[in-house]
Amino acid sequence: MNRISAIYLILAVGLHLQAQTISISGKVTDQSDKPISGAIVSLKSKNLADTTDATGAYLLKGSITAAKDLSILPGADAISLKSGIISLRLTQSAPVRIEFFDVRGKLLDKIAENHMAAGNYQFAMNNYPLAQNMMIVRVCTGQYSSSYRYITMSNGLSNMASAERSSSRSRLAKIQAAVDTLQASALGYKTKKVPVNTYEETLTITLETEAVYNCTKSKVVNVTEPVSGSHKVVVETNSDAGINEGTIYRPEDLGPGKNYPIFVWGEGACSKDGKSNSQAMSQIASHGYFVIADGTPGGSGSRPMNGSDIVGMGKPLIGYINWIIAENRKPCSAYYQSVDTTKIGGNGFSCGGLLSMGIAHDPRTTTWGLNSSGSFSENKPFWNTVHTPVLIVEGHQDNTGAYTNGMRDFNGIAPLGHPVMFLSNKSMGHGGDLFSPYGGEFNKINIAWLNWWLKGDTGATGKGVLVGDGCKYCKDNNWEVKSANLP
To answer: How many CB atoms are closer than 10 A to CB 126?
Structure first.
């Protein structure tokens, strides 16, 4: 008679929904086993991502709900017969037995293993002599079993998917069955995808360098402002693409272990003058931050303002972030291993605040803020991209509408669960006292916020400035202070 091309499952299989935990951790390193910080590791199928810290470590945590076979019992995570392949996944050590019966129930043969370690196994039926006839196949693990009716295929099983098969008919072949794919990417390195065998495992991912490094020396600019931080400040420019439109304010001392957080700034009126807020930028740098302000020192012109294209407005600041992350990895760079690429913040004054908003969607961003700025109208699409703590500082007497715009953003972001603060001085106008020495009270708030979220400072120079008994703004009737979701 003609052999039909089919494999029939004769057991009824029930399904139920089960929550499965995802906990994938590990490190990302280069080819010399040195940790890569700031790499983005993602499990795109589950919309999970993390950025590696200074040690190269990452952690993806979450949960998924999936249909689970009710026949999957303790000791056997899966038993199936498909395309001539018996597949068995053990979650723990167990005895395994495969029995072959004819259609009348007579035992023809069996394969028995008294002890099999946890893992994934396969057995190819087309390698088995009895597989040429119709039979009943029963697979047992301990006290649990699954039975199948098996009929060979008309093409002699020649079109079955390839699988690792045992050279001995008395054993099952152990395999690694990937359940998903992890992707790791970092500037200066080739993106790599690696298989994930379970949703709870530890993986070290090694990335290959993408190209030979070239370094361009920065030029010092004669800008000197009074500062109160512990670091002397150097102001520089660089002709490299990605930074040639910006101004660098950085601590004088550089080198491995400094781990300065990265901070980018958008100027008022979207000006291309990188010295526009030099007092505030120098002050932030003196507190141990690698600052890049938009525009060159004394530059002219301004960027177009387009509140309906926030992502587009943020591209210059994203370019600066990309540049310093790449420089941090170049042994030939003066900035080699000087910054913490996992701690990235942004802010901006007035139109420059829109540039800061333009980095909110970037998964590398740790926090961002606004000084006398905000969305021009209801902006739910933008608010939904926010994934970090947000600081908004305004002046009540602002005649540009920035106070209203900033309050609108606070009210739109707060319900989403992200930490957000709104502070406004009732007697100050547009820009507050940003142009005062050290950047005024506006900048004291900016620095305290950065210390809190980029340096983990919960004391008197960080969180304590803005929350609790040490918060003078909270006690001063001349300041309006609002917050939501603060830890």
So the answer is: 16
pLDDT band at 379 (very low <50, low <70, confident <90, very high): very high
Work out the number of other CB atoms within 10 angstroms of the CB of residue 486. Answer: 12
Beta bridge partners of 290: 262
Q: What's the CA gap between 341 and 337, in Å, rounded?
A: 9
Best CA proximity match to 141, nearest among 87, 193, 101, 65:
87
CA dist., res. 163 & res. 150, Å (int) = 19
The vertex-317 CA angle with 346 and 216, nearest 5°, equals 120
**pLDDT tens across 208-265, in order?**
987 667 899 999 999 999 999 999 999 999 999 999 999 999 999 999 889 999 999 9
| DSSP letter string, 309-352 | -HHHHTHHHHHHHHHHHHHHT-TTSTTTT-EEEEEEEEEEBTHH
**In Å, how far from its chain's centre is CA 144?**
41
Residue 443: which of 284, 249, 264 has the closest Cα? Answer: 284
Q: Which helix (H) or strand (E) holds 294?
A: strand 290-294
Q: First CA to last CA across the chain, in angstroms?
A: 74
**Alpha-carbon torsion (220, 224, 225, 228), positive or negative:** positive
Task: State the DSSP string of 64-108.
Answer: EEEEEETT--TT-SEEEEETTEEEEEESS-EEEEEEEE-TT--EE
Whole-angstrom distance, CA of residue 285 vs CA of residue 230 = 10
Alpha-carbon span 316 to 57, nearest angstrom = 28
pLDDT greater at residue 135 or residue 292: 292
Q: Are 292 and 243 in contact (CB under 8 A)?
A: yes
**Is residue 20's pLDDT more than 70?**
no
Calpha distance 53→342 (Å, rounded): 6
**Which residue carries 């990188």 as its tokens?**
274
pLDDT of 282-332, one tens digit each?
999 999 999 999 999 999 999 999 999 999 999 999 999 999 999 998 889
Identify each DSSP E strand in 83-199 by its residue range: 85-90, 94-101, 107-116, 119-124, 135-141, 144-150, 173-175, 180-185, 192-196
Element spanning 260, H or E: strand 260-266
Q: How far apart are CA 348 and CA 335, in angstroms?
A: 24
Question: Model confidence over 64-96: pLDDT tens digits?
Answer: 654 443 333 334 446 777 767 777 777 777 788
**Is the C-alpha dihedral spanning 44, 46, 47, 50 positive or negative?**
negative
Burial code (b: 16+ CB inside 10 Å, e: under 16) for 143-158 equals eebbbbbbebbeeebe
**How do strand 339-348 and strand 260-266 relate by DSSP bridges?**
parallel
